[in-house]
Amino acid sequence: MVSLIKKEDASITEEATHPVLEHAGSGIPTPTLFEWNRPFFEGGIQGKLMLQRCTRCKQLIYYPRMLCPRCFSPDYEWEQLSGRGTVYSFAIVWRPNHPAFTDQIPVLLAVVELSEGPQMVSTLVGCAPDQVSIGMEVSVVFDTIAPDVALPKFVPQT
Ligand code: ZN
After folding, report:
1. Rounded CA gap, 87 and 119, in Å?
2. By CB neighbour count within 10 A (0-12 exposed, 13-18 middle, 19+ buried), where does 61 fall?
3. pLDDT tens figures, 76-126
4. Residue 138: exposed, middle, or buried by beta-carbon count in 10 A (0-12, 13-18, 19+)?
């Protein structure tokens, strides 16, 4: 049996596949940054929605990963997307899963189908729960939660 992971790298891999949530000053959990996810979170600081594209099979990859989920290639390039999409599905969350989100209730948790194809789990902002509909056109905005982390969220297109 061939092992792709050297024993001395096991702790790094464990950390990479099960990131430990850190807490920024606001108390909002923030992701741990690695080479393979940093452009996704830092791109938002510059207002760019960035995803990996596998250089072998050309598939866009969401969420950021070390390997392409389709062909397992470790080779990818970062690509800026349009930031436009439609609401594929959504749920209204009334009970926060972390105390730091209490003042954001209700949260409009959504699956947004990006114009380029991938479906992204995100949050809808700038609209009331009764204004959301399946197929609604949305555009990305970014919520900066730490100096190097901005989360993509979506607002209705005007
Ligand atoms: Zn691939």
Report:
1. 9
2. buried
3. 999 999 999 999 999 999 998 888 888 889 999 999 999 999 999 999 999
4. buried
**Contact present, 105 and 125 (Cβ < 8 Å):** no
Reading phi first (left if > 0) and then psi (alpha if -120 to 50, else beta), residue 117 is in left
Please give the distance, rounded to the nearest whole angstrom, from the Cα atom of residue 113 to the centre of ligand 1: 20
The predicted structure's pLDDT at residue 158: 79
Q: Look up the pTM and report it.
A: 0.82
pLDDT digits (tens, 9 = 90+) for 5-45: 444 444 445 444 444 444 445 688 899 999 999 999 999 99
Q: Locate all alpha helices (DSSP H) within the chain, ordered by sequence.
A: 10-17, 38-43
Residues with CB under 5 A from ligand 1 (ion): 54, 56-57, 68, 70-71, 73
Query: Token pair for residue 31?
Result: 């992701």
Element (H, E) at 145: strand 137-146
DSSP 8-state assignment for residue 89:
E
Both tokens of 128, joined, read: 């009331």
CA of residue 97 to ligand 1 center, whole Å: 33
